[in-house]
Amino acid sequence: MVLLPGGTYLMGSQDAAAYPADGEGPVREITLSPFWIDPLTVSNASFEEFILAAGHQTEAERYGWSFVFAGVLPHDFPDTRGVAAAPWWRQVPGADWRHPEGPDSSLNGRSDHPVVHVSWRDAAAYCAWAGLRLPTEPEWEYAARGGLVQKRYPWGDELTPAGEHRCNVWQGEFPRRNTCDDGFYGTAPADSFQPNGFGLYNMSGNVWEWCADWFSQTSRYGSRKDPQGPPHGTHRVIRGGSYLCHESYCFRYRVSARSASTPESSTGNTGFRTARDA
């Protein structure tokens, strides 16, 4: 893990690309104590160690299905229920962390990719087993910024400086055509691309990451020192965007952007990284 020094930073943004309903702004000073954080999202190999040691059954396994992006399914895949507001998401029986695209898929060649199809509760169970925790939302954003001040991405304000891709997001026209200019269709290994200034990988794109906090559109955190999220809620915070994000519809791979999902939800583009107190 990487020890981050903490201190005071500017959280949030007034970016014109922000979605008002997300509660991304206003910009405010937040002070954090030092803490440790993983440089990588938890991989399939690490999650398998937890499953074998703890005997945990993920929520996708218990429910018998999870949401999979239609673009990674075979062309002859049987028709299944989609999400009305996002028809590219398909309910796939048998999809879980071991079978990311359904029962006929496997993790072959993906042991170093981030684990997906894990709910917030699954991530919390992993943390309890490992003696760790999920990062708070202010910790996550501080870590993602890598020491930069109010930049759009972990490396600066330009998405592809000098034409170089720095993250795994959608290129082309979503959801019909992905040019894969960054080299990936679907998840990438957890250590892909250059790390940020703190030595952390893929803080933008690849997979959404669960945070410890409940989500609120209006919460500005009651304390400016090591703030905690709301005491209760219906959704947990997710951060960082994923390989499905595109500026045209989900410009949330910016470091200040935020979103949320219910704690029992699982999808093929959501994982997590861990933290602990210093």
Give the number of helices: 4
Helix and strand element order: EEEEHHEEEHHEEEEEEE
Give the % helix. Answer: 10-25%
Range of strand content? 15-25%
CATH superfamily membership, which one?
paralog of FGE (formylglycine-generating enzyme)
The largest sheet, given as strand count, sense and whether it forms a barrel, is: 4 strands, mixed
Helix/strand class: alpha+beta
Describe the structure concisely.
With 278 residues, the chain is an alpha+beta fold. The protein is built from four helices and 14 strands. A four-stranded mixed β-sheet has the order 12-11-10-13. A three-stranded antiparallel β-sheet has the order 1-4-14, with no helix packed on it. It has a three-stranded antiparallel β-sheet with strand order 5-7-6.
List key phrases describing it.
paralog of FGE (formylglycine-generating enzyme); 3-stranded antiparallel beta sheet; alpha+beta; 13% helix; 278 residues; 4-stranded mixed beta sheet; single chain; globular
